[in-house]
Batch of 2 targets.
Target 1
Amino acid sequence: MGNLRRIFYISRADASLDGATVKDIVLRSQRSNRQLDVTGVLAHSGQHFAQVLEGTAENLAGLTNKIRLDKRHGQVTVLFDEPISKRDYADWSMGFLYDASLTEEIEKALSDSTHQPQDRDGTLAHKIFLHVSDLARP
Ligand SMILES: Cc1cc2nc3c(=O)[nH]c(=O)nc-3n(C[C@H](O)[C@H](O)[C@H](O)COP(=O)(O)O)c2cc1C
């Protein structure tokens, strides 16, 4: 399939978000991503999200607009949006993992992006992406 892209973003979870809501987001995402042929993984640190989304540009555009507007999180910050030749998460309509060890890096990346873009070369973005990949495939 041509035109495949990967989007990786981080965000801050709404303070009132509870476990049942996160579970509901994951279950609904799995169902609707299957219909859109979107795959990926959602990582939750307790206070943040990091999400990999893979699919065609057309399918990702509509979905990321919805996700960006979702009040259950904020400061949605896209760390990369790039063409890919192959999916990393072909078997997961939306994998889920919880790991508090993501907190520090995501917090740093979110505060860098609002205060000063120290991460122009994307080093921290790649570090977080690799951290999520390692957690997803131990
Ligand atoms: C952190 C986070 C990740 C989300 N990921 C997805 C996703 O991968 N797929 C999806 O369909 N909705 C996802 N959602 C939910 C969407 O924002 C939105 O609520 C959903 O697409 C329902 O749209 P609808 O009202 O048009 O059915 C996510 C929400 C949050 C807060």
Note: The pocket of flavin mononucleotide is lined by residues 25, 29, 32-33, 42, 49, 51, 63, 66-67, 70, 72-73, 94 (CB under 6 Å).
Target 2
Amino acid sequence: MNETTRTFQEYLKANRLKLTSQRRLILDVFVSRGCRVTADELFKEVAELDDGISLSTVYRTVKHLLQSGLARCSHYGDGTTRYEPADGQTSHLVCEVCGRKVPIANPYLECMHAEAARQAGFRMLHCHVTIHGLCHECLTKHEN
Ligand SMILES: [Zn+2]
């Protein structure tokens, strides 16, 4: 399992979801293309490999890829949204007890940092924030 797949699996696990063979196929096709695609284009490609995949599965998986930081999207003037692989360098929540690392993608957070950088005459290339705390499971154990 490569780093990208692992990151996706960790994200899914943190959201109580499983890395199904369909989600994995969508991820693999998306990453191997390496360029900007619409959800429909991605659907056409994965449907050729697995005709059991629905368009809504592709849409939902793309949403998870965005939230896990493995994809970013651009909106075009013609109303289409295109997705491309990202490096997964998102911000993380880190549990101080069990060490679990949960990726969080918050576009507002990113905007705020880019704006703070801009005001200082700085052009932001990457931004990585780590929030330390207790994960849901450790918190539940702690309270009981
Ligand atoms: Zn924990």
Note: Residues 95, 97-98, 100, 134-135, 137-138 surround zinc ion (CB under 6 Å).
